[in-house]
Amino acid sequence: MPKRNHQDGFSLIELMVAMAITAVVLAGIYGAYQDQLRTSITQQRIVDMNQNLRTATLIIERDLRMGGANPTGDAPAGITTAEADKLVIAMDDGGDDNIAGNSSNALDDDKDNDGDDVVDEGSDAQDNDGDGLYDEEDEAEWYDGDVTDQGEVVMFDLNDGNLRRRANSQGSDDPTDGTGITKWIATNIDAINFVYLDADGDVLPTPVTGGDLNDIHSVQVTIIARSGDTVPVLMRKHTDNTVYRDPREPDSVDPTVGKVILDKSAAPDQFRRQMVTTTIKCRNMGL
């Protein structure tokens, strides 16, 4: 029988073709992975930026709505400092430690805070409003005619890219005297701008001082946040050269446009930014 010479395996050319095809496929997979990673990192930075803005806006809104609370009419409550980049709010709401049993609270301080000849109603085991229920929250004297309880005066300003909330300590009405409580409520903030409006919605000249503070009925708050403190290498390319302007307050040079809050046209960078503006009515002021 004839003898056959069999040679199994691949030729060098076949191996090279297979390696080339594999390299193309792997390059495509790696490119898709890189693209997905860039998208993920970019989206995460944007989510963090939006969360920063949301948190800051909610905290400022909460304090502004309570600003000017003065049930007795005796407390120096209201907006005490009204500048473009700084806001100080005072309120008589019992403060941070207004809990029954605390030595400095207004709930059970052995005083008739509301002048109805009933002492510490709401914590006296009595039905003070005659509805059959005892020590209800709406019976409590949560106010005491001053703004020196801890947390009754708060200040918002920008410090080295951080939006901070500073509150007074017990016995003081000054949140900047070194004894107060400072909290960072948002980081990576490039600008904050306050615009003060009267009862007709007209802009009051900033800073608002003296008796003009009583004309403030609402405050427009504008915050500009950026996407982190660095720009990751694996982030979708972006160039920010935007001129951010206030939507309501006119520019001093050109009144047809809004006042410049942040100008990136002269020094563009790769950060992504978002500007949020909200107008908050001070419900306890101008009554």
Structure, described:
This protein is α+β, with helices and mostly antiparallel strands. It has one helix spanning 12-66, and strands spanning 78-82, 86-90, 153-159, 162-167, 181-186, 189-197, 218-226, 243-250, 258-263, 273-281. Helix content is 19%, strand content 24%. The strands form three sheets. A five-stranded antiparallel sheet has the order 1-2-3-4-5, with helices on one face. A hairpin with a 3-residue loop joins strand 1 and strand 2. The mean pLDDT is 87.
Give a brief rundown of this model.
This protein is α+β, with helices and mostly antiparallel strands and 287 residues long.
Which features characterize this protein?
three-stranded antiparallel β-sheet, 10 strands, elongated, 24% strand, single chain, 287 residues
Number of domains: 1
Q: Output mean pLDDT.
A: 87
Question: How helical, in percent, are the residues?
Answer: 10-25%
Percent in strands = 15-25%
What does the overall shape look like? elongated
Oligomer: single chain
Widest beta sheet: strand line-up: 1-2-3-4-5
Runs in which pLDDT lies below 50 for 5 or more consecutive residues are none
Q: How would you sum up the major sheet?
A: 5 strands, antiparallel
Radius of gyration: 30 Å
Count of beta strands: 10
In terms of structural class, how would the helical and strand content be classed? alpha+beta
C-alpha termini separation: 117 Å
